[in-house]
């Protein structure tokens, strides 16, 4: 074998040895390689009945229950992220948390001084729409907390996954990282339609 061919074989052998030495685990994923982040989205199941309190909310505030805007997913630019953080924090601070259930059941309201979880979520949705966000990317979800209490949050569909705005925290999390058991969510195309999760 010529010297040139020996040099090529030696170089290839050393490259293979380095790659083998850096392999990690049974799948052989190389250390130091950056992988594209995986963004997670909520997958709806079959259509279900809307919460009765939401039906009543839509009867009182029909404009809040119509789709506005075109985008069903928001690019999470630094500006959009800043707006999302600002709305989540300001609404969490501006509404005094109270259980507003009455003999007639739960009452869903928007832009109130005091209210419970769905009032926070509806107000955040309303503020973002007023800032020009498409309602198709802003959906209310009904969940359960770790203690089993019914809870509503705003879910924002972004190009970085479905993000949760929760009145229990100012931190915005991916839906899979939220400590919630997911029950149902609004349709992005028609806020009056709901799906099981």
Question: Which features would summarize this protein structure in a list?
Answer:
11 strands; 2 domains; 197 residues; single chain; alpha+beta; two-stranded antiparallel ribbon; C8orf32 fold; 7-stranded antiparallel β-sheet
How much beta, percentage-wise? 15-25%
The percentage helix is 25-40%
Which strands sit side by side, in order, in the main sheet? 3-11-10-6-7-8-9
Total helical elements: 4
Report low-confidence residues grouped into runs of 5 or more.
6-30
Distance between the termini: 65 Å
Q: Mind telling me the CATH class of the largest domain?
A: Alpha Beta
Please state the CA-atom Rg, rounded to the nearest Å: 24 Å
- List the helices and strands in order: HEEEHHEEHEEEEEE
Query: Architecture of the largest domain, CATH level 2?
Result: Roll
Total domain units: 2
Number of strands: 11
Computed structural class: alpha+beta
C-alpha geometry = globular
Name the average pLDDT.
86
**Main beta sheet strand tally, sense and closure:** 7 strands, antiparallel
CATH T-level topology of the largest domain: C8orf32 fold
Describe the structure.
This protein has 197 residues and is of the alpha+beta class. The chain folds into 2 domains: 1-35; 47-196, C8orf32 fold, CATH 3.10.620.30. A hairpin with a 5-residue loop joins β6 and β7. The N and C termini lie far apart (65 Å). It is built from 4 helices and 11 strands, in the order αβββααββαββββββ. The strands form 3 sheets. It has a 7-stranded antiparallel β-sheet, with helices on one face. It has a two-stranded antiparallel ribbon with strand order 1-2. The protein has a two-stranded parallel ribbon with strand order 4-5. The model is unreliable at 6-30 (pLDDT under 50). The radius of gyration is 24 Å and the shape is globular.
